[in-house]
Write a structure and sequence with these properties.
Strand order of the largest sheet: 2-1-3-4
Distance between the termini: 48 Å
Structural class: alpha/beta
Largest sheet: 4 strands, parallel
Radius of gyration: 20 Å
Number of helices: 11
Shape: globular
C-alpha cells in the first residue's frame, strides 16, 4: 500500500535527558512535551548507594555527565537537561554552574540542570519565600534549603519523607498530604523536589486548594528545556505554564465550595480545619512498577 501521499513524519526537535540510574518516571517527563519534540534519555551508571548526599555527588561527577552527554550525540538533541535535583544542588550554586558548563562543553548545545531550572522558575513566578516538600532524608533536604538560601530564596517551612530508595513509588495522595500540612499562608509558592517523585496530576489540584503556584522538579526541568527550544510545555492548568492560571491565583478567588472567612459554621458542623486546608482530593493509585535493581 502506497502511503507516500501522507508525507512526514514531521520534522522532530530533540531534548537530551541525562538521568540518574534509578530514575523511573520517563512517562511523566513525556506528559509535558508537545508532539513535535522528542525526548532522548540516557542514565548514569549504576552504583550501589542509597539516596543520600554521597549518591548525589556520585551521579553528578563531570566525567559521568560528559560520558552520558556523548551517548546522546547520535540523536542530535538541541538542548541537554540533567534531570536530578539533589545531584545538581549538592555542591551549591557554583557546582550547578560548573555542571551545566561541563555538559555544554561535552555536547556543544545549551545545557541545564533541574536545580538551575528550579531557580529560573521561582524567579519567573516572583517567589522569594517558599514552602518545600521533599522525599529526602533530613541531610539532603537541608542541602536543598542551603542551595535556595544561597540564591536568596527563603524556605519558610519544609517537610521530608526520609526515604532512601523507591521514591518513585510514592503516591499522589502522599504528595498531597505532605503539601497540605507543610504550606502556610505567607509563602509565594510551593516547590516539590526530586525528579523521581510523581507530581504531574497533583499540581493543578494543589494549586486550586492552596491558592498559590506549585512547581515540581520534573515540571521545571521540562519547562526550562522547552523554553530553550523556543516552545512551551503542555499540561493541565498549572501556573508556571499558563499565565491565565497565574492571574487567577493572584486574584485569590475563593474556591466555589469553600465558605467565606466570616461565614458562620452550620449547626452541628465538624470542627473547622486550619485556614487554607481542605479534605484531600481523591487520586487514582498509579500503576505498580517492577522494582529496579539496587538502591535509589
Amino acid at each position: 500500500m502506497d502511503v507516500s501521499f501522507l508525507g512526514g513524519p514531521h520534522p522532530q526537535r530533540g531534548i537530551g535527558i541525562v538521568a540518574p540510574f534509578d530514575f523511573a518516571l520517563d512517562r511523566e517527563l513525556w506528559r509535558w512535551v508537545p508532539d513535535e519534540v522528542s525526548l532522548h534519555l540516557t542514565r548514569t551508571p549504576y552504583v550501589p548507594v542509597e539516596v543520600s548526599l554521597d549518591l548525589a555527588r556520585l551521579v553528578s561527577e563531570h566525567q559521568t555527565l560528559s560520558a552520558a552527554v556523548h551517548a546522546l550525540h547520535a540523536a542530535e538533541p538541541e538542548v541537554i537537561a540533567y534531570a536530578c535535583t539533589s545531584g545538581s544542588f549538592v555542591d551549591g550554586m557554583a557546582g550547578e554552574r560548573t555542571m551545566s558548563a561541563a555538559m555544554e562543553a561535552a555536547g556543544a548545545v545549551p545545557a541545564l540542570t533541574t536545580s538551575g531550572a528550579m531557580l529560573e522558575a521561582l524567579t519567573e513566578l516572583g517567589a522569594e519565600r517558599i514552602a518545600l516538600v521533599t522525599p529526602y532524608t533530613a541531610s539532603v533536604t537541608q542541602a536543598l534549603e542551603d542551595f535556595l538560601a544561597e540564591a536568596g530564596i527563603t524556605v519558610v517551612s519544609q517537610t521530608g519523607l526520609g526515604l532512601t530508595r523507591h521514591i518513585w513509588k510514592v503516591t499522589y495522595r502522599d504528595v498531597v498530604e505532605m503539601a497540605r500540612h507543610t504550606v502556610p499562608r505567607d509563602v509565594d509558592a510551593l516547590f516539590i523536589s526530586c525528579t523521581n517523585l510523581p507530581t504531574y496530576d497533583a499540581i493543578p489540584q494543589l494549586e486550586a486548594e492552596l491558592r498559590m503556584p506549585v512547581v515540581s522538579a520534573n515540571q521545571v526541568t521540562m519547562w526550562a528545556a522547552l523554553r530553550r527550544l523556543g516552545t512551551s510545555a503542555v499540561g493541565p492548568y498549572q501556573a508556571l505554564l499558563d499565565e491565565s492560571a497565574r492571574r487567577m491565583l493572584r486574584a485569590d478567588v475563593p474556591l466555589a465550595d469553600a465558605p467565606m472567612p466570616d461565614a458562620p459554621a452550620p449547626a452541628g458542623a465538624a470542627p473547622e480545619e486550619p485556614p487554607g486546608f481542605a479534605e484531600p482530593p481523591v487520586f487514582p493509585e498509579p500503576p505498580v512498577f517492577p522494582d529496579l535493581p539496587g538502591a535509589e
